[in-house]
Amino acid sequence: MGRNLKNAVIAFLAPLPSILFYLSFLNHYSNGDVIAVSPLWKWCFDHPLLLVNALFFLNVNVLFWIISHFQSSHWMIDLYWTVIPVLLLYYYASHPFAQYDLWRSRIVTVLTWVWSIRLTHNYFRREEWQWGAREDWRFTDMRPQYGKHWWWASFFAVYASQQVFLIGICLPMYIVHSVDKPLDIWDFAAIAVCVSGIVIAYYADTQLHEFMTKNEKLKELGLPVVLNLDRGLWCYSRHPNYFGEQLWWWGLAIFAWNLGHGWAFIGALINSSCLAYVTLLVEQRMLKLESRAEAYRLYQKTTSVWVPWFKSSAIAARVKEA
After folding, report:
1. Which domain-ending residue is among 140, 160, 179?
2. Fewer beta carbons within 10 angstroms: which end of the chain, N or C?
3. Looking only at Cα atoms, what is the longest distance across the chain?
4. CA separation, residue 66 to residues 3, 14, 15, 70, 150 (Å)
5. Whether residue 126 is found in the same domain as residue 212
6. Is 0.90 surpassed by the pTM of this model?
7. 155 in the same domain as 8
8. Which tens digits make up the pLDDT trace of 185-196?
9. CA–CA separation, 137 vs 75, rounded Å?
10. Which of 121, 144, 179 is the last residue of a domain?
11. What are phi and psi of 99, to 5 degrees?
């Protein structure tokens, strides 16, 4: 079995323990024996948030971590970032405790699927349609930093931290399926923000992919590469893909805020804080490339970090004169 096919099979099988356990719970509930037959099923019935955290911990943190040691790569968590929110959405919608407005649930479901398909497509496009071709460069950089301790430190750095991020940013999905309130104007505002985020992220990632593909072709021809991407959305923001991704999660949080649970913004805030750190790492990495450092410094001086804004031509002129 080729590596690509083997990784695809592993990726499809990995979440099955949680899915099968949850389907078993729903089957017992539909048969009316949740409370009467087993304390386990009653606990699952009474504590939906604790249950989803337990399933995440055992199936993602522990199982994915064990698999990563056999493969010497943490590639799978990167792929499942695009899938887990969809799984969480259906978990919250199908749990017996769920109560919600059907139209709001349908809207959030469609939006989440569109977001997931876009991000999954971008993942495979970036990886040249390979399963597990490589792990996230940030994890690769961490390996030498932790040395012989990486085998256990990776459990916290790669997996346990993902539980905080993913469960946190998906809390609005829980709120949407916990409150039955008719749609109002704020729901449409949330839709607009979510759609804007998805569209911006899609075009930003597409422009980045085209830029990198073009440079690869130039290298093959032995021609000089383009040092910096500063066209399209990248002319107005140094990280428009990150900006679009944040818009999506903040838009989702507006749904929860409108249902009286503004505290759910904590997930979007954690995500933005994480992306701020990732932005710093990405820019430090760019500045380490001697061939591109000077061009990127000018780009930093003239272009907004996240929020798209007009390029500062006055600063660019002063830098060139200096």
Report:
1. 179
2. C
3. 80
4. 18, 11, 13, 7, 13
5. no
6. yes
7. yes
8. 999 999 999 999
9. 10
10. 179
11. -145, 130
